[in-house]
Amino acid sequence: MLTSLHTIRIWFLIFSVMVASTASADLPNGSQSKRPNILFIIVDDQSPQDLRVYNPASELQTPQLDRLAAEGMVLDGAYHMGSWSGAVCTPSRHMVMSGRSVWHLPNRRGKRAQSNGVRPENVPESLEEFTMAAVFNRAGYDTMRTCKQGNSYDAANEQFTVRHDKTKRGGTAETGSAWHAEQVLNYLNEREANADQDPFLIYFGFSHPHDTRDGTPELLAKYGATNHDDPKSFPPASDDAPALPVNYLPEHPFHHGHPGLRDEENVSGVWKRRDEITIRNELGREFACSENIDHQIKRVLDRLDAMGELDNTYIFYTADHGMAIGRHGLQGKQNLYEHTWRVPLIAKGPGIPAGQRAQGNVYLMDVLATLCDFADITPPETNEGVSFRDVLEGKASTVREVLYGVYCGGTKPGMRSVRKGDWKLIKYDVLESTVRETQLFNLRENPHEFLIEHHSPRVKALTGIEPTADQVDLADDPRYADRLAELESLLHDEMKRLDDPYRLWDQDAE
Length: 510
Fold this sequence. Notes:
Blueprint: H1 2-25, E1 37-44, H2 63-70, E2 73-79, E3 82-83, H3 89-98, H4 132-138, E4 142-147, H5 154-157, E5 162-165, H6 177-193, E6 200-209, H7 217-222, H8 262-265, H9 276-307, E7 313-319, H10 338-341, E8 345-348, E9 356-363, H11 367-374, H12 389-392, E10 402-407, E11 414-420, E12 423-430, E13 435-442, H13 457-463, H14 481-497
Parallel strand pairs: 1-6, 1-7, 2-9, 3-10, 4-5, 4-6
Antiparallel strand pairs: 2-8, 7-8, 10-11, 11-12, 12-13
Helix pairs in contact: 6-9
């Protein structure tokens, strides 16, 4: 009997080796038999319009991101959905981690009972156990994270096996973006030294280009900027500073609805100023920080390449939300214009065609389902996102028709937006209903969402941009009354579907 069992074990071992050899025989170096690695890169506060892959006229130079786009897929319609907090990054990063929609999230501390309108029954208990790192840990992945400290989902962040979180917004290697790259490089070096063959998920987050945008001296000089910190004086004017954004305004035509909002009043170097010199200097600082991030990404990708891991790694690049910096007379991230509601999203990896673009119509909450799809992991039952793998592989152009956006971190009910095709609606119900505004844009004809204020001679002289007659808010144009009514109805439907607890002044209470 013992001899028979011994023989069976030997034959089973031989059979297993033969099967493994056969499985990898048709694969170059057996590389495709390995589960893919994932490098998820997220920056803090970056408009798609800052990057040349979205705005060819941008003066920001990011050769590594340009290469990533040339070798992968760019999504033109990626959005963060919105926020119930002035710290827009908080719900945004919760959505990335959990795959849940904006009104189905816990607060930063993981509490289900909240004061922001989220109903406790819409937040699963122990949700952190079903967030990104926890899901990949159970699937046999090694998980590592570096990112800023704070305004994030603490309990989900703690699920990463290796974690190095600090806020680094300085202008040196130790105090700036290079620090985050060093954490990833150290981790990769340790893997190589230990001959670790497990697949990895690396969450590679940066603290920049969020303010304070203290750039390195050489990159500040390149973009004609200074780390200005004196509210009593203006930064020096420089011809090397980036041009004003095409949709710059010296002020927004009505109040944004969040009195005392830090991002609109207290950002060091800007404060309440929206003059040309201040905004161009701040853009220069932002560009200096963003190019530095590009340098750090290259260091990590070069290391992966040297390790032989790059070809088996899916790389995602995005931001937690966009940013205004002078666009529409705004400074922060608490608005629903395209420069702020949208996020950049570039992906590269096995099976993703090179040099392609797609609309996508994705949310950041779709990231978890997509990463799971590429790793052949079943998403957790708590996930509400949709995998956009088919879009990235060129098999579909979008994953949904209608997009919903919200900002109500200030006075309630706040701002709401809905987009379908080329048409977009934004509504404002703020300051105790003293500001009630409706905007309607055709984004194909008016991609920068020009308002009538952009047609003033003073603004045109500053930007050098001459909007066409139809590049305005169309909400009051009787030619588009039916379109307005359609989007108003769509917005109401989305608010109900997504458990938005508020209603605007002209909506049914149900």
